[in-house]
């Protein structure tokens, strides 16, 4: 083992050399140094705001649904590590990869039968887009190359996903004119329970119809738009998209990277609408937050179309494709999820957040408070003061990472009622001080 470094030295080296998400180099903010994590708690190397442990309100960006250091996932990782941590997937296969693919086929909407394992959510979206474009090329409609999405979305940080992120006010605004130009519908009207707006549905149908000749696919996040604005919409719009895509020969891609594995109250958000996409991306909670892994699933029609083409293969093969360690943990994580009444836990957190976030509605500067499944959002009427909001949450013993005008939480499903209440109180404190 190398000599341990003192926290102060680690933070100095971090600032000097380490690039953090969406940050400048060298860094300007000092991150909290995490020493270990267990259950729903992050243990800090040095106390912050008098707290040496923080309840995690973020599930490490939607992923750690079972909490940290879980014995079942630890065993899966350890067991696989002793067999092999990795072998290439070209010309070779292995049990964890096959088991995981079968498991994903079994739990996702029935028409999805084939699985491409990718190394991150963004890559799974790249693969989804490549599948759709190549499908149309293979079946003799090469002009169908563009994508349609609605505004307010987020699909990742690599190039194709960036082109379907919200083009305004988002982090990728800088690249307008450089990115492929996609077709944008208006943001879906807000409200999971709001009756679908007929004028908006007509707008979607009209755009898809008008651009059908050049459209390869419609790609959206179903029901919850995550990093594009944490907003919820009626599942009815997904049915509108499904029908319009069918009517106009356009593929439908659902990006379930954030919504998958129970977060919105159904195993996949598409189930709220009772529809199946042609292509679907999953990631984030796939490995329970242990390792990086994502997957792109598609129907037999899409797979056969591609495999009949002039280039009858999908030309994509990440070096670490199908990583056995990640696949074994993912299979164990899905098994663990399905072995419990996860839907009841998500409902329980939904009730807890609804109660605990209600006081935020009375605060000055708060525009909206909304909860769906194990997701709670407080939207301000101004950009959040990130440092002040984070400090306020940490003082309450909770880890939150607000962005834009949003203070939000999606806790691990194992979060106990008193910790859900504590997270809620921290969100309110962050809203007051941020
Ligand atoms: C996080 C996210 C992605 C990107 O996944 P990465 O693993 O960060 O590349 C894509 N789509 C949605 C909806 C996401 O929430």
Question: What report would you give on this structure?
Answer:
With about 425 residues, this protein is of the alpha/beta class. The protein folds into two domains: about 30-70 and about 340-434, Aspartate Aminotransferase, domain 1 (Alpha-Beta Complex); about 75-340, Aspartate Aminotransferase, domain 2 (3-Layer(aba) Sandwich). Helices cover about 35% and strands about 20% of the residues. It contains 14 helices and 16 strands. The protein has helices spanning about 5-15, 60, 70-85, 95-105, 120-140, 160-165, 200-210, 235-245, 270-275, 300-305, 325-340, 340-355, 385-395, 415-434; strands spanning about 35-40, 40-50, 50-55, 110-120, 145-150, 185, 215-220, 225, 230, 250-255, 280, 295-300, 365-370, 375-380, 400, 405-410. The chain has a seven-stranded mixed β-sheet with strand order 4-12-11-10-7-5-6, with helices on both faces. Helix 6 (about 160-165) links the parallel strand 5 and strand 6 (about 185). Helix 3 (about 70-85) packs antiparallel against helix 11, helix 4 runs parallel beside helix 11 (about 325-340) and helix 12 packs parallel to helix 14. The two termini are about 40 Å apart. The mean pLDDT is about 95. The structure holds pyridoxal-5'-phosphate. Pyridoxal-5'-phosphate binds near residues 227 and 255. One of its GO terms (cellular component) is cytoplasm. Its EC number is 2.6.1.62.
